[in-house]
Write a structure and sequence with these properties.
By secondary structure, the chain is an alpha+beta fold. It is built from three helices and four strands, in the order αββαββα. A hairpin with a 2-residue loop joins strand 1 and strand 2. Helix 1 packs across helix 2. The model has no long low-confidence stretch (mean pLDDT 85).
Length: 187
């Protein structure tokens, strides 16, 4: 008689294959999970490292911004100090000029001319005054033009002062530019 195996071997084999399949499936899932976890940890480490680098760079940038602001304030202070030094130097250099101007003004003023006001704004000098005759005003203008310390003398107005029908004098206004012959010869 033939050898017949009555055991349910097919069913046992199916269970064995199913067990192996589940075991392999669990191993694959565990391996995939481990690989995913490892990948996640690696990416998280790279992100943390990049965040540290970004934080370091932001800190350095803020330090540099503070230094830039400090440098700008120092530059402003330097410019202000340079401006002050230039003003002081110009005042020191221009100090004797006023003496020369007044000396030349006295030399240029003919007899019969009297000043009421004299004002200076920058290099422009405005003079208003009285003269006993118009010729004295003309002489004054010519004298100012001849002087090395004045230039561009300009008569703004002349008015006669009358006492009844008789002319007793003239009022005038003159504008003149001050010059510095020392600077012109130095240039």
């Amino acid at each position: 008689m033939a050898n017949i195996d009555l055991r349910p071997w097919r069913e046992e084999r199916r269970k064995e294959l199913q067990k192996n399949f589940i075991l392999v499936l669990v191993l694959v899932v565990v391996a995939a999970g481990a690989a995913g976890w490892t990948w996640y940890q690696q990416v998280a480490g790279q992100i943390a490292f990049q965040n540290q680098r970004n934080t370091f760079l932001e800190q350095r940038l803020s330090d540099l911004d503070k230094k830039i602001v400090e440098i700008q304030s120092l530059r402003k202070q330097r410019e202000q100090l340079i401006e002050r030094m230039e003003v002081i130097q110009s005042l020191q250099g221009d100090r004797p000029i006023i003496v020369h101007l007044f000396d030349e003004m006295v030399k240029a003023t003919p007899e019969g001319v009297y000043f009421n006001t004299m004002s200076s704004q920058g290099t422009t000098i405005n003079i208003s005054g009285n003269a006993d005759r118009p010729l004295s005003i003309s002489d004054f203008l010519r004298n100012l033009d001849r002087s090395a310390w004045f230039q561009k003398a300009f008569l703004i107005n002349v008015q006669s002062v009358t006492d009844g029908a008789e002319v007793v004098g003239n009022t005038f206004s003159i504008r003149v530019e001050r010059a510095n012959p020392n600077k012109e010869s130095a240039s």
